[in-house]
Amino acid sequence: MLPDIDSLALFVRAAELRSLTKAAEASHIGLAAASRRMALLEHRFRTTLLERSSRGVEVTAAGASLLPHARALLVELNQMQAEMRDHANGRKGALRLLANTSVITDTLPNDLAAFAHHNPEVKVIMQERWSEEIVSAVQAAEADVGIVVEGAAVEGLETRHYCQDRLAVVMPNHHALAAFETLSFNDVLDDELITLEGGSSMTRLLASQAVIAQRTLQLRIQVRSFESICHMVQAGLGLGLLPEQAASVFAKGLDLTVRPFSDAWAERQMLLCVRKDRAAMPSVAKLLDFLCNRGHLPETDAVTQGSAS
């Protein structure tokens, strides 16, 4: 017989609070009832999960093994309840959208706000991932729609154009290159550079273009966010490489200059990707059509987008 959810939730609270008494209070049950629940749970698993003492409780080795599974199960249960609540409230089109960092810091927030305004019956749950992770999740049906950079391996998926961005360099205002309105990638290769960590498609693109130019990419620092890149640049640790729109957003107030690269390859296309068996689902098709036509929205949509930022 499987353990009941309430007992697992009580166990997690007791482990986190290191007190069965506090866990019972948080669960709105008496201490005696909590003790019985824990005894039954340990009997069901045929092992001791908590060691009791006058100072509270400590998880045993078995309890430490159970804890991450119990937490994950409770998270999944909460998500299930939220989705069922959406069905009960008429929001029956819950979609999972995965997007890369570039579009999240550029066009996507306003586009999703406009979509939600015109399609209140469809709930979009969005998460940020690297493009390769997005493709894998969509292929495995763990997400309904993904937004990735062109060039990601999207075998077996249907793709549509969403938007484009252009890579740029961000630098201190006093840097010698700040005097130029546009720059080529070669112009910055003599400087120490700050980029996203090596797993990002952007960093791999920059590295490949340096090889083509027969130059060395002098990576001094690699971080996980565009905002971190700009703060490193502000500290004088090098020049930052990131999409122009994101650079413009994060460079505000940091006394930094943003210059787009003039190289043709620096303009990147962003693609919507979806499994073919899901593309025809009404809510998925509605989201895809809306995002594909984002450049041709009625005037009312443009007003909505402007006020959502």
Can you offer a commentary on this structure?
A hairpin with a 2-residue loop joins β1 and β2. With 309 residues, this protein is an alpha/beta fold. The model is unreliable at 295-309 (pLDDT under 50). It folds into three domains: 5-88, Orthogonal Bundle (Arc Repressor Mutant, subunit A); 95-163 and 268-308, Periplasmic binding protein-like II (D-Maltodextrin-Binding Protein, domain 2); 166-266, 3-Layer(aba) Sandwich (D-Maltodextrin-Binding Protein, domain 2), CATH 3.40.190. It has helices at residues 5-17, 20-26, 31-45, 61-88, 101-104, 108-118, 131-139, 201-212, 226-234, 244-251, 276-279, 282-292, 299-308, and strands spanning 50-53, 56-59, 95-99, 124-128, 145-149, 157-172, 193-196, 219-223, 239-243, 256-260, 267-275. The chain contains 13 helices and eleven strands. α1 (5-17) crosses α2 (20-26) and α9 (226-234) crosses α10 (244-251).
Strand-helix topology:
Elements: H1 5-17, H2 20-26, H3 31-45, E1 50-53, E2 56-59, H4 61-88, E3 95-99, H5 101-104, H6 108-118, E4 124-128, H7 131-139, E5 145-149, E6 157-172, E7 193-196, H8 201-212, E8 219-223, H9 226-234, E9 239-243, H10 244-251, E10 256-260, E11 267-275, H11 276-279, H12 282-292, H13 299-308
Parallel strand pairs: 3-4, 3-5, 7-8, 7-9
Antiparallel strand pairs: 1-2, 5-11, 6-9, 6-10, 6-11
Helix pairs in contact: 1-2, 1-3, 1-4, 2-3, 6-13, 9-10
